[in-house]
Specification:
Elements (H helix, E strand, L loop, with lengths): L2 H7 L2 H11 L6 H15 L4 E6 L5 H15 L5 E5 L2 H17 L18 E2 L12 E5 L9 E7 L4 H4 L2 H12 L1 H4 E11 L27 E5 L16 H19 L18 E3 L3 E6 L2 E6 L2 E11 L12 E8 L4 E8 L10 H15 L4 E5 L7 H12 L4 E5 L5 H14 L3 E4 L7 H7 L11 H11 L32
Helix pairs in contact: 2-3, 2-4, 4-5, 10-11, 12-14
Length: about 500
């Protein structure tokens, strides 16, 4: 019986065990679990699989052996290895080469010509003449146009350098989407890694604020091997005792431990603002008039006051600050209700100037939310907007006061002062539709300090609301008025005495 026929009949767990025997190493049960699962997926013709395991679990080592095993079964196979950086992909390729050179079942696969045995690509002895090499290494940002593969290995393509900002995450997803044009029909995609962001490509659930309708790897078969088993003990006790794991958690902190060792999507640099502390609600504003008194409520809870803040800006938000308006209501028990936030958009081709376009959107926002007043930050570019907004409010018949505010406090300090206490108290209720905006993502990723350069326009607008003096006005309805908090009206009262 030939070596090739033996290789074709050998399962992947046995192939892995044979390699470890030649290297004088034991085979951890953790690696056997990975091997059994990968082998089963191959036998079931699984086309999309995701293998997740804690840091330093040996994922790449097992994947390298998997590539060699697949080539031993089918030497015509074409494998593309993608990693976050080209050097990391080459490291995987060198590992596969070393296995093919030394494994008992693959030694006859090494070609005679050295030009087919390079560090970033190689071609084994195979019956077919194919344009693409057996194994090719590429960084995830490298050019793969024109390549064809029967299997694509995405080994740790998500690292902090490819996912720590929204533009980097968008670029990573765009690059990985190119796999569809490289993979042969019926080909296999294998992702392996650990999550490095709350908005990880490995997430099971949709993040509504990220703009995705489905998880990025929706439909993939998943293997998840956190360092702690369901019983709370180590999954690899020979290397990590329970004492070692406790020390890891103390040294790196619970946030990083949860992400890198327990495979729970979190931001590895702990954020100051936790959106999970907000209390979501789904009710719409309910406006009513009782005995000429306007009443505004949410889910049966009567609202007592409102704060609305507009932080204006001009130009494309991708090149600077965005223009955002938000409104927060308070009830009589001290609860805060973040009901609406709008990231204003303008049409550069419109015949209407940008400032007027924004003021018209703000006027509509104020009408929809029965806002009694709006504060406008007039630092710099916003100085002439109050007059323009008053004109638009008059033209549209919106009864809302315009308050000019000049802020001198640094933005980071303002955001912390606005959010810290109300989040800690669990007093911030947030309408569920706001999870569809960039606001929640801003919260998760915001970092105090001068070095942060990510988006924070929504945070600035909401903190302005939270720090503003809430408007509490007599809510007597004027004739022909439907403005909550309009106030200022007069009426005649009958008395039992003469003056």
């Amino acid at each position: 019986m030939s070596i090739q026929s033996v290789a074709a009949r050998t399962g992947f767990p046995e192939f892995l065990w044979m390699w470890n025997q030649t290297q004088g190493q034991e085979t951890p049960s953790l690696h056997l679990d990975m091997a059994r699962w990968l082998g089963a997926q191959r036998d079931a013709l699984g086309e999309k699989i995701l293998s997740m395991a804690f840091r330093a679990a040996g994922k790449s080592t097992v994947l390298g052996l998997f590539c060699a095993w697949m080539l031993a079964r089918n030497p015509d196979l074409r494998i593309l290895v993608l990693a976050a950086e080209f050097e990391l992909a080459c490291k995987m390729v060198r590992n596969v080469k070393r296995i093919i050179e030394r494994h008992p079942l693959t030694g006859d696969m090494k070609p005679a010509r050295l030009d087919q045995w390079a560090s970033d690509q190689f071609t084994v002895n195979r019956p077919s003449v194919l344009r693409d090499p057996s194994v090719l290494a590429r960084g995830v940002s490298g050019n793969i146009t024109g390549s064809r593969a029967d299997m694509v290995i995405c080994d740790d393509v998500e690292v902090p350098n490819t996912c720590d900002t929204p533009p980097k995450r968008a670029a990573l997803r765009a690059r990985l989407s190119e796999i569809d044009y490289v993979l042969a029909p019926g080909g296999m995609q294998v992702f392996a890694g650990t999550p490095h962001s709350y908005y990880t490509i490995y997430a099971k659930a949709v993040r509504p604020e990220s703009g995705e309708d489905t998880p990025f790897l929706d439909g993939f078969q998943r293997l998840e091997l956190p360092i702690l088993k369901a019983d709370g003990h180590s999954r690899w006790p020979e290397r990590y005792t329970d004492k070692d794991i406790a020390a890891l958690k103390r040294r790196h902190g619970p946030n990083k431990f949860s992400g890198q060792m327990m495979l729970q999507p979190v931001n590895l640099s702990e954020g100051r603002l936790d959106p999970d502390r907000m209390r979501p609600y789904d009710e719409a504003l309910d406006y009513a008039e009782r005995n000429r008194t306007a009443v505004l409520s949410l889910g049966g809870i009567e609202l007592a006051s409102a704060s609305c803040w507009w932080d204006p800006s001009y130009g494309a938000s991708t090149r600077g600050d965005g223009s955002v308006i938000a409104i927060v209501f308070t009830d009589r028990k001290g609860g805060y209700w973040l009901h609406d936030i709008r990231y204003l958009q303008v049409d550069p081709d419109s015949s209407v100037d940008e400032a007027t376009q924004q003021c018209r959107q703000v006027a509509a926002f104020l009408r929809e939310n029965f806002a009694p007043s709006v504060s406008i930050e007039v630092n710099g570019l916003g100085r002439f907007l109050p007059g323009l907004l008053r004109r638009e409010l008059g033209l549209t018949g919106v009864g809302c006061a315009v308050v000019e505010v000049s802020s001198r406090q640094p933005k980071a300090a303002r955001i912390m002062d606005g959010f810290d206490a109300v989040l800690a108290a669990g007093a911030l209720h947030t309408r569920k539709t706001i999870w569809q905006t960039p606001f929640v993502q801003e919260m998760r990723e915001w970092r105090p300090g001068g070095g942060y350069s990510g988006p924070d326009d929504g945070l600035d607008a909401v903190s302005g609301c939270l720090l503003s003096e809430p408007v509490r006005l007599p809510r007597v309805v004027r004739a022909n008025s439907r403005a909550w908090g309009a106030g200022g009206g007069s009426f005649n009262a009958e008395t039992a005495f003469d003056i």
